[in-house]
Amino acid sequence: MVWFVCWIILLAAVGGGRNNAVVVVGGVNVTYDGRSLMIDGQRRILISGSIHYPRSTPDMWPSLIAKAKQGGLDAIQTYVFWNVHEPQPGQYDFSGRNDIVSFIKQVQQQGLYVSLRIGPFIEAEWGYGGLPFWLHDVPGIVYRSNNEPFKFYMQNFTTKIVNMMKEEKLFASQGGPIILSQIENEYQNVEGAFHRDGYVNWTAQMALGQNTGEPWVMCKQDDAPDPVINTCNGMKCAETWKGPNSPNKPSLWTENWPSFLQGYGEDPYLRSAQDIAFQTTLFIVKMNGSYINYYMYHGGTNFGRSPAAFIITSYYDQAPLDEYGLLNQPKYGHLKDMHAAIRLCSQALLYGELTIETLGQDQTAYVYNGSSVECAAFLINNSSRESVVVFQGSSYTLPSKSISILPDCKTVVYNTNTVSTQVSRRSMQPVMKFDSLQQWATFSESVPQFDETTLRSNTLLEHSNTTKDTSDYLWYTMSVQQDSPEAHSTLKVKSLGHVLRAYVNGALVGSGHGYRKTPNFTLENTITFLSGMNNISFLSVMVGLPDSGAFMERRRYGLSQVLIQEQNFTSYSWGYQVGLLGEKLLVYTDAGSSKVSWSPYQNASTLTWYKTTFDMPNGNEPIALNLGSMGKGEAWVNGQSIGRYWVSITTPKGIPSQTWYNVPRSFLKPTSNLLVLFEEEYGNPLNISVDTISVNQVCGRVSDSHPQKLSSRDRFQLRPRPRVHLQCPKNRKISRIVFASHGNPSGDCESYSIGNCHSPNSQQIVEKACLGKRQCSIPHTTENFGDDPCPGTPKTLLVDARCE
Prior knowledge:
The chain has 804 residues and is an alpha+beta fold. It folds into four domains: 308 residues, Alpha-Beta Barrel (TIM Barrel); 113 residues, Galactose-binding domain-like (Jelly Rolls, Sandwich), CATH 2.60.120.260; 132 residues, Sandwich (Jelly Rolls); 109 residues, Jelly Rolls. The chain contains 15 helices and 42 strands.
């Protein structure tokens, strides 16, 4: 049998009948028992999603929050980013993208709760795990340990944030939206390195002493002391987690990863909507899960130099809302339907008695029932094959690795493996190209020589402690006397990461780099010295700071050994230059750009600044910069960094990890926007473009349903035979039907073909129903398509369309 969704689910999924989190002005009491969080004494199953305010722009926040709410979420989760808020000790920044109070208030205005992960160590694939780098220079400090200097600054910032929230009355007890707070983050991963020195207990007591009035959690911390709740992070918490460390604590899942982090040179991790739905439902059923947070629901963009080492600029683009805030279908819609189905069962789940029935070798029924609640059942098929089971006298076909949800213990309203939501694909449309030499001006970054440097040392300095995270770049320079006319020498340089470029007398003689999991590397090459004094310069480049692990304050980067003809120059007279001249002069801003002399573009060269201008594209579609022809560097628009790019490093499949780079419209003016690139390699700016992002493909696939005998309860009604629903984005219409087949087409929206059963007028029927419309709905019935082409054969309708 193929499953269907009853009409009440569809209404719930778009907001009808929703019991959204409505914040009470007078405040609410948030507590918990062994079953769930409780709001004013009422148990709740809460669905949450992570949206990080610095990874999007304030003009995007209302839309992102609204889409999260429409997707069935009850709460928004966010970290607090210490290093952006306190870039220097006692100097705070809560403006623009860092305006956490405004973000939380906007969540509140849309009727959702907030889970606030203060940390203040957050990891988050964010540079230094959110710790400000100035902590590195605090005498005697040891991060995340029972170390007085660290505890002082950690408590100071935690108190700063809590007091801000209290002043703005943002905790639920004050009438605000914050119902949960988190202290520390995945500390169990490093706890052994510190021999369980008491830091966890101190941290918990410090947090509880803030008197917020709401529960505190520690994620991935099995020994979280009472009353702090330990929670799970991962993709399969129903299968891998031990559960709460006390029977009085509920099961909370703080990070349910709908995709995964991606580093430069790595393929994206693609997690299916079906797997997310299966694991989420399994957690609710098997673990009594009552709070599930998707990390991320919208990933956004790692602007500037914010991401951790080797992490790409685009963050969790495969989340339900993509980097640009567009719906990732079918992931968004399939989870939305699941949330609605779970909500129909919430009273039974929260207050019913559980009975487990074995239906087969890998098939189980979890049944929740009670005298004061309705029956709800979850039929689980853990097999990789489809299975037919009998439950309470009726036959059910369970797709492979799936859970069927029956809110009345009779009617299947949702199956985790059966996607009825349309599939959509975005497209990038070039609207402006920079293919003319006259469009570009260049400024060459000079290679410093030893005599030009003022910072000196008789040894190789560690990179990050020298730059203090003010730049990715550190020049190491030295001079070598050569008495013979010309000599070839072997150069061998060991680097602790991340990128190295070697120059002899101003000419590039070699480059090397590491990877996220193996940042260390060795550069070896043959070089030629001229007679007399030779200048050797090494450009060490970091691609972000670390974000996790014990003793981060001890990490070392940059050059560790230099050998020339086996002679060790590690202990030698070295000169240093922190950063680039162009950075110092701010050439990526209008004011800074006017201070240097720019040259006409002639040909690609290394260490070059490129600048041009462009007008904002019309419309309101997201904008991205296609940097597919560039190498490695950073890009700025009107003085704001849109992030690092690294196109030349490719995945195992031979393609760049990222080609398009988000340019928020809020960064732009109507005309004459300044675009500046710093290119380390031999990138070609003549082939880049400004593109608009839109959804141009919409595809739907539904199959025959065989509804079971329905309950007499009037809230369940038989939905008509399924339909394919297609919808284009606003201001776009269906312009072409690429494929349509009613019968038994093979494949799915990724790849398909007509099967041996096909209604010959499929294309005509669908075109009549859809062309020229923003949305359409095609009934999956033989009557709609004329005669039955193959009586007795279950039918499928698959339609692939384009939007313009």
